[in-house]
DNA sequence: TCTTGCCTTAGAGTTCACACGAAGGTTTAG
DNA sequence: CTAAACCTTCGTGTGAACTCTAAGGCAAGA
């Protein structure tokens, strides 16, 4: 598939696809006789994978490390699997932070009329020790 | 409390505290005779509050709007409350995205040995239609 | 008093993750 | 055949949110 197709399929700009490839976030995409990119099924998989993790807030830097190990081949299977596990943990942490803030917002919405802010009470609310 | 104390208490740089104040994200902090900032209890509350919402991904711009409404007093209560509710919804959406990606990673971890990636199957896994 | 280490401001620099523009080659529709 | 509409690279621009530098005032210990 050409870059335009991939761009549309995944709702990413062509610039972003080229940018990701340049940084090593995608494998080097094969070119046809005119030097145009031709994305293989495998390439598309990478795009899908990277997009999912970028969507979830994973940094480019963390993803570059993963792809680098992947490229180094099979003997890195252990490291790569543990990177997946690490990535999962990162997301889990992020989810907890978000849940905490959601609860804090709920507290602030419920107590919206209480104008006398007290720092200790805010902290308790944030840490889930109020309500 | 002086700026150094607040910086340490909330794990924010002094630059960030001054930056937030300059943008109107914090109230104007009172100064002592030498022109040094002295943070009141109320100021600390704001720092805590802003930090929590920044942590949760709320933009500076949205927070400026919120603080501006707050300063305008009681008649903006409705708008402010709905901003809180909007923000809560954003976080909820973000949480759902993260949960989806966690499930996808679980699938990838479980099927780590399957090297024959297939894009359609990845998509199904991501959307929760496999496993 | 001198030195070290705070604090202040204004303005410039940095980082991240793209987005854009120019210059030029290729493909396709009429 | 030519004009529109693609593609390429290289380099620069953008916006958000800091982060740092310079120049100078204030404070506290030897």
UniProtKB/TrEMBL annotation, chains A, B:
Gene3D superfamilies: 1.10.1660.10. It comes from the Bacteria. Coiled coil: none annotated. It comes from Pediococcus parvulus. It holds the Pfam family MerR_1. CDD domains: HTH_YyaN. The keyword Acetylation does not apply. This is Transcriptional regulator. Residues 1-69 form the HTH merR-type domain. Keywords: DNA-binding. GO terms for molecular function: DNA binding; DNA-binding transcription factor activity.
């Amino acid at each position: 598939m050409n870059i335009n197709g991939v761009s549309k399929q995944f709702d990413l700009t062509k610039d972003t696809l080229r940018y990701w490839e340049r940084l090593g976030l995608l494998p080097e995409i094969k070119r046809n006789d005119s030097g145009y990119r031709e994305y293989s099924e495998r390439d598309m998989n990478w795009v899908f994978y990277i997009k999912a993790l970028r969507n979830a807030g994973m940094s480019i830097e963390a993803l570059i490390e993963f792809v680098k190990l992947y490229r180094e081949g099979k003997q890195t299977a252990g490291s790569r699997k543990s990177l997946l596990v690490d990535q999962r943990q990162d997301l889990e942490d992020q989810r907890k932070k978000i849940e905490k803030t959601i609860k804090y917002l709920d507290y602030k919405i419920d107590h919206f009329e209480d104008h006398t802010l007290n720092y200790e009470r805010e902290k308790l609310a944030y840490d889930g020790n109020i309500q």
